[in-house]
Design a protein that fits this description.
A hairpin with a 2-residue loop joins β9 and β10 (177-182). α3 (115-131) packs parallel to α6 (254-263) and α4 packs across α7 (288-309). The chain has helices at residues 49-53, 65-78, 115-131, 187-200, 232-244, 254-263, 288-309, and strands at 5-7, 36-37, 42-43, 58-62, 100-103, 106-110, 138-147, 155-162, 169-174, 177-182, 205-212, 247-251, 267-277. The relative contact order is 0.19. By secondary structure, the protein is an alpha/beta fold. 29% of the residues lie in helices and 23% in strands. It is an enzyme of class 2 (transferase). Substrate binds at residues 220, 222.
């Protein structure tokens, strides 16, 4: 291990009850009279978190605000808690950083693009769930990705998030020192999601590793960025090496998502659709209507999982359509 680095493990003792409440790995919070969740425009001194969020059991997060609003409308209809055309207010309307929607036991939150953006959101989301005294929480990231060796439109349920060297870890610099955090995800939850996909039977779904990169272009071996100092042969060899290591898709958020959920004792999963096969190209060229349908697939799968978990699945398949939105 390099000087100044360390492996971190989830503390055995934390700020959590014996009933699967959220762990907070921060003793300083207990000394604060008020906790302001600045990027949500919410605070313990101005909002009653247990009343607002105490019944939450499922949290779905994704990059685009419009996609997460579409998801809450979809899941509301699926759970019989809303109807077509219903409007769902943005709980974070006091800020333009993130959007948050709620219906029944489901919270839907946007996280922006990349590790820094989702990291900020997760810090405040985890504290929100803790202050609300939520228990038995499942958090699922739903999104898009580039596939490796898969047909476009395939859905990948992440087994492990790996870095650009295919290691299942997140390296983060804290107080000038590199700490290494595990990026494994809940295996049982992944299998349950896979079973749900089989029951739906509408699209190809696999369990595989997801490579999380620091950018969209060079970090993912693209040839079409403003800067590219490698050739196509080197790119293809890198992607083939990734495939041989178990990687099936590439995105930019899963590593910190897995690491933070691990440290907080939260059951978590990542479910992303592939918009293209990176072994065949770099640019997303499918027609808009095709991409919209692809982007609905993780929502259908996770929606079915939530319905099944709540005992609301009475027949196979998904009965309602998701409102169509565009976005990356």
């Amino acid at each position: 291990m390099a000087p100044g680095s360390s492996n971190e493990k989830k503390p055995d003792d934390g700020q959590a009850s014996k009933e699967n409440f959220i762990h907070l790995c921060n003793p300083h919070l207990e000394k604060m009279k008020e906790d302001i969740l600045y990027h949500f425009a919410l605070g313990t001194g101005t909002h009653d978190f247990p009343t607002l969020f105490g019944d939450v059991k499922f949290v779905c997060v994704g990059g685009s605000p419009s996609r997460m609003k579409a998801f809450i409308a979809y899941i509301a209809e699926e759970l019989g808690l809303g109807s077509a055309g219903c409007d769902y207010p943005n709980i974070c309307a006091g800020t333009d950083r993130y959007a948050m929607y709620k219906v029944g036991p489901v919270l839907s939150v946007s996280h922006g693009m990349g590790i820094p953006s989702i990291s900020i959101m997760l810090h405040e989301l985890i504290k929100l769930l803790y202050h609300a005294k939520c228990s038995d929480i499942t958090i699922i990231r739903i999104g898009t990705s580039g596939g490796i060796g898969l047909e476009p439109g395939s859905v990948v349920i992440t087994r492990q998030s790996v870095d650009a060297t295919f290691k299942p870890q997140l390296e983060q610099v804290v107080l000038g020192k590199t700490v290494i955090r595990s990026t494994n995800l809940d295996e049982q939850l992944a299998q349950e999601l896979m079973q749900c996909s089989k029951e739906i039977g509408q699209f190809n779904t696999v369990i595989g590793n997801t490579m999380c990169t620091l950018d969209f272009y060079e970090g993912q071996g693209r040839l079409d960025g403003a800067i590219c100092l490698y050739d196509e042969e080197e790119k293809l060899q890198y992607l083939k090496n990734a495939y041989e290591s178990g990687v099936r898709n590439i995105e930019m958020e899963s590593s910190v998502f897995a690491a933070m959920c691990n440290l907080s004792g939260v059951k978590a999963a990542v479910v992303c659709v592939t918009l293209l096969n990176r072994l065949e190209g770099d640019q997303i060229s499918s027609p808009h209507d095709v991409l919209v349908e692809y982007q609905q697939r993780p929502q259908k799968l996770v929606g079915y999982f939530i319905k099944k978990s709540l005992g609301k699945v009475f027949c196979l398949g998904v009965t309602h359509s998701i409102p169509c939105v565009s976005g990356s």
